Amino acid sequence: MYRKSEVKDCKTIYSLICALENRHLSYEQFTEIYRKQLLDEQYYCLIYEQNDSIQGLLNLRFEEQLHHAAEIAEILEFIVSENCRGDGIGKRMFQRACEIAEKRGCIQIEVACNQLRKSSHLFYMREGMHNFHFKFSKSLCSGSEEKGINVLGR
């Protein structure tokens, strides 16, 4: 079953995001941001639930952009549990996200994906996405510990 996430889903979504990022995030900070997003119409966290267990999430942000002169949707986080990969859940979640964005009036859906996630790149290309951009980032804190981030296995 696909549905919009709720407050009660926070701990499971936190675990999935930590698995996606391969690090422990500050649960307190995560919860604060998650709760804010739930109340903000600019966000939509879609989850896939199977047997009362969340097996996937796709978090969208909607944003008007000057260079498009329109609203676009951006996939911020997208993960399907390892034990469910290959079952078509991700494909259906992506399709559902596109429908949600279209219904809202968005003209485009975008995603930034880590360069190391080659299988994710192939997934997005199979779904009709194109790699037109480079995304650059720069850390603005002197150490990841200041932000409550513990990197696992790096």
TrEMBL record:
Transmembrane segments: none
Keyword entries, A-Z: Acyltransferase, Transferase
Residue span(s) of domain N-acetyltransferase: 1-154
One term of GO molecular function: N-acetyltransferase activity
Family annotation (InterPro entries): Acyl_CoA_acyltransferase, Diverse_Substrate_AcTransf, GNAT_dom
Metal-binding as UniProt keyword: no
Name listed for the protein in its UniProt record: Acetyltransferase, GNAT family
Annotated source species: Megasphaera paucivorans
Phylogenetic placement of the source organism: Bacteria, Bacillati, Bacillota, Negativicutes, Veillonellales
